[in-house]
Amino acid sequence: MSSPTFKSYLNIPYTSPATSLQTLDLHLPTLAPSYPSYTIIYIHGGAFRDPLITSKSILPSLPFLFPSTSISPTSKLPSISHDSHGSNESGQRENHIAAIVSVNYRLIPYPTHPTHPSTPDDEDRNAKWPDQVNDVRAAIEWLSSSSDSVDELGEERGRYSRLTSQSDIILVGHSVGATIAFAVALELGYRDDAERDDVEGSKHKIKAVVGIEGIYDFTALRDAHLDYRSVYEDFTNGAFGAEADGNWEKGNVVRMIADGMEMGRTAVVVLGQSREDEKTGVREQRMVKAWQRKFWLRS
Prior knowledge:
Elements: E1 6-13, E2 23-29, E3 38-43, H1 62-65, E4 97-103, H2 131-145, H3 157-164, E5 168-174, H4 176-189, H5 193-200, E6 206-212, H6 218-224, H7 229-240, H8 253-258, E7 268-272, H9 281-295
Helix pairs in contact: 2-4, 6-7
């Protein structure tokens, strides 16, 4: 039987005091990664409100993300020759993942959920934008400043710090998780010079943002799929407030880009969609066009 390729630490609070959804799951490779290495932060979707979609939704993907073979652990992260497909000299697939962090965040109310309706006194399920953004930023700050002393890691605290000390961040978000991911990255890039220097000089930098089936313009999405109008309007109003008051623009990533918000030192932007998802086309097309106008990118 093959040895496990990663070890998981679940439900770690990233702020204090923390609600039950202000937690993250930390997944570490059992063997040291190749250099350069990256910490992947995954932000789940669920229309800002689905209580059944959590940080655990990434679990089925982990065996595919951590390769079954890697280099031997050392005190120094080594650099070895590899081909364009990420294989080392022996033909083994290299692991460049120092850690995968899957983040929970507070949800908006969902009193009509068929099995898990929210209640007005639930501190985890009465959030409003930008509470979700603030939660993910708190998780990033936890990675930079607090992780070395987290009791949940026990004897692994030193190894975690060693694995991630030389790694930068790749933000990955699915659906509204992509909305949150880009809002976090754009916000960090839009600070004044003094604040930006502080962020970019920290232990971790956001080097890439990956949006999977992301929502970047809620009005355009609703207008392109009027047969789902009531569903889209229900959760979007719940997250941002009434459309009539212009509140939906708070989460409009396309508008943020058009208004001049920049990604700071983010090196790579990746937009992913499935051809089998008929509702993603308008989201990706508007996002790509906005980025092309702003940064002269090619699709």
